[in-house]
Amino acid sequence: MRVLILGGDGYLGWPTAMNLSALGHNVMVVDNYLRRQIAQQTSSEPLFPNPNLIERCDAFREATGCDIKARIADCSDYRLLEEIIRDFQPEGLVHYAEQPSAPYSMQGFEEARLTLNNNLQVTFNVIWAVLEHAPNCHIVKLGTMGEYGTPNIDIEEGWLDVSHNGRNQKFLYPRQGGSLYHTTKVLDTDLLWFYVRTYGLKVTDLMQGPVYGLYTDESSKDRRLLPNFHYDDIFGTVVNRFIVQAVAGVPMTVYGGGGQTRGYLNLKDTLRCVQLALENPVPSGELRILNQFTEQFSVNELAERVVDAAKGIGINATVNSIPNPRKELESHYYNAKHQNLIEMGLKPTLMSTEVLTEMMETVRSFEQLIVPEKILPRVNWNK
Ligand SMILES: NC(=O)c1ccc[n+]([C@@H]2O[C@H](COP(=O)([O-])OP(=O)(O)OC[C@H]3O[C@@H](n4cnc5c(N)ncnc54)[C@H](O)[C@@H]3O)[C@@H](O)[C@H]2O)c1
Predict the structure, then answer these.
(1) pLDDT for 246-262, tens place per residue?
(2) Is the CB of 8 under 6 A from ligand 1?
């Protein structure tokens, strides 16, 4: 299959590209290094440096003999994106190319505007370039479980059957993002749904939980192939932050009460889910929504897992609650369905002690590069 990956230099985009190429697909990646630029501007660089996208493709070819084509281009430029899609004629398109940091999107006007404009513009351009130049292409879009928020009822996979005054209708499940970034994802879903039902696009929207992990079949071959590992307050997810704090010997900072519950998944499972979605495309006019996570637990439970895994390698990790910089419920009902990808063939890699230990050992090998102050929150939702 010809697969175009937008955001192919990112934490998920790069391992996805290697995985699909190793499986024999014809892969092209596009990225404009937005993530690298924002990381530099906000002092949020990853723990260890990553080669640029062209160097990564060369290293991957050296390690495996497989090819990935790369193009440095801004997908919010419609003329550039339509040229790429017209020339490459993708059968599958994976859209990762967004500004994904919730804190960054809440920092101030310029950051909010960049997030809104970039994310919506890229999604809009993808829709139009596919409609105009590759109408049979199946779009696999990365959404987030954060689109649903934390409602006091079960979270379904994308849709909700509503009975009202004796009549029934299926609607998109109600969405309420907890940051501007999450809200751009809600708007993306609405845009996609409009063009699916009106012009017959083929779309899978993956509602993904926070991803953790460094190692995949391909990234473990050569350290130059490892994905970006951010551990700061802007780009670092809670799992990365806790692991780095444990290794650095500083307390793990739990935001507020720590009862915030989310669905998590291993990087290996993200790759498998995207592969399953691509290899099982939807028919024209269908918006398929899949909840993409494998296990759910609270921040406090996550901290306990890290403490246990750390103990196994001689680290005495501690936990410290700090005021929550975000506006979110710290204790709430959370029960999200996630059956569809399992039924399609996903076999989860769960967050075991071994998985956490492997991440900690890798972080420990870069211990001298850790700057623990980078982990403390700089952006406050209430200001
Ligand atoms: N990582 C997670 O835990 C997670 C969880 C849920 C959803 N997601 C979603 O998955 C996607 C990828 O996430 P990630 O963690 O890999 O983020 P990332 O920032 O590492 O990757 C996104 C990539 O897209 C690129 N990009 C952004 N705007 C672009 C543009 N206009 N043109 C070209 N390239 C552009 C960036 O430079 C970056 O390399 C995002 O849409 C994110 O919202 C991620």
Answers:
(1) 999 999 999 999 999 99
(2) no
